[in-house]
Amino acid sequence: MGSKLNICIHGAGGLGSVVGGYLAKSGHKVTLISRPAHANAINADGLKVVGRLGEMVIKDNLHAVTMPEQVEGDIDYYILLTKAKDAPAALADAAVLVDQVKTALSMQNGVGKESLLIDCFGKDKVIGGSIIEGGTLLEPGKVLNHVTAPTTAFFGELAGGRSDRTDRLAKAFTEANLTSQSVEDIQHVLWEKVVQVSGASAWSASTLSAIPELDYADGISVREGAEHYVTIAKELIDTYKAMGYAPQDFYAPFSFLKVLDESTFEKAVQVCLDLGEHMKTIPRGIRTSMHEDLVNGKVTEADALFLPLIEEAKKYKVAIPTFLGAYRVIKTIDSNRT
After folding, report:
1. Nearest-angstrom CA–CA distance, 159 and 124
2. How much is the pTM?
3. Are 140 and 154 in contact (CB under 8 A)?
4. 3-class SS string, the chain
5. What's the CA gap between 177 and 34, in Å, rounded?
6. Which residues of 92-122 are buried (b: 16+ CB within 10 A; e: fewer)?
7. How many CA atoms lie within 13 A of 95 on its CB side?
8. What per-residue confidence (pLDDT) applies to 128?
9. What whole-number distance in Å separates Cα of residue 171 and Cα of residue 165?
10. How far apart are CA 19 and CA 41, in angstroms?
């Protein structure tokens, strides 16, 4: 395969463009499948990325198309990064790429998405992937990369274990300023991210979205807001532990599940209050994507993200009333937008 990879990113909005841009800048051949205005801007003037690595315009090794059938050549890694609700339609379109794709993965939020990839590409081609990198589409051809983590992505074989193909992809991401690991148990990573993201999303979307100006710091720095956050988090951690997992904080410092789990309720609330005060000292505007969706009048991914956890809680008889309440609030808003 060689050291330089041919990578296709399907669903190149903010995050997909950040990932694809950095991989192209490090020398890999990258094809982005995106909306027409974004694709046209990239092909005409390059991809503009601003944020944590400064400002750059990426032109070399990068090409954007609008449909899978326009992707040329063998594809070492096909990465699905559409919204979860758009995945079935995207993969129906991607069926034309089956013979070109060597390895396929999704880096969307949620669990269970790999089954859709297996239906499209076959079980032997699919690996697991997870990422927490921040990427926001500012305008066609321009994206913001404002957030990363000490380890921002993980890859692994779905049945367990590392392999040459998961190691190779982790190495490529790391060399592209997206520090990554190839891990023995990708399912553990996937479930922990669901717990982490679902807790933050359910809390922020149900608590803050009524006032468009509010961000994460505004909510978690208020005692009642912090208490609400901790209540949801502890319900989901209990579900996670009932499944046989122990919190690892794969995405520290954004993930602090271990502290929340090991602390008394009052100490956990104080941890959140301290975080809120710290967040007020850094650039404002940090929100979960679900919070952003509600503020921008979009239907959320609540079902795709939350329902697997709700089913696990039922299976293990774990009480999650506060999380369910937040889910019902978000679903009520969504139902009036469809």
Report:
1. 11
2. 0.90
3. no
4. CCCCCEEEEECCCHHHHHHHHHHHHCCCEEEEECCHHHHHHHHHHCEEEEECCEEEEECCCEEEECCHHHCCCCEEEEEECCCHHHHHHHHHHHHHHCCCEEEEEECCCCCCCHHHHHHHHCHHHECEEEECCCCEEEECCEEEECCCCCCCEEEECCCCCCCHHHHHHHHHHHHCCCCEEECCCHHHHHHHHHHHHHHHHHHHHHHHCCCCCCCHHHHHCCHHHHHHHHHHHHHHHHHHHHCCCCCCCCCCCCCCHHHHHHCCHHHHHHHHHHHHHHHCCCCCCCCCHHHHHHHCCCCCCHHHHHHHHHHHHHHHCCCCHHHHHHHHHHHHHHHCCC
5. 22
6. eebeebeebbebbbbbbbbbebbebbeebbe
7. 7
8. 97
9. 10
10. 17
- Distance from C-alpha of 149 to C-alpha of 134, rounded to nearest angstrom: 9
Euclidean distance between CA atoms 296 and 23, whole angstroms = 30
Distance of alpha carbon 313 from alpha carbon 317, whole angstroms: 6
List strands edge to edge, sheet with 180-182: 128-131, 153-156, 180-182
Positions of the chain with pLDDT under 50:
1
Helix axes 302-316, 223-242, angle to 10 degrees: 60
Residues in the chain: 338
Residue 13, both tokens: 């909005």
Among 280, 138, 295, CA closest to 201: 295
Match 């990239």 to its residue by tokens.
42
Task: Report pLDDT for 1.
Answer: 42
Determine contact, residues 329/335, Cβ cutoff 8 Å: no
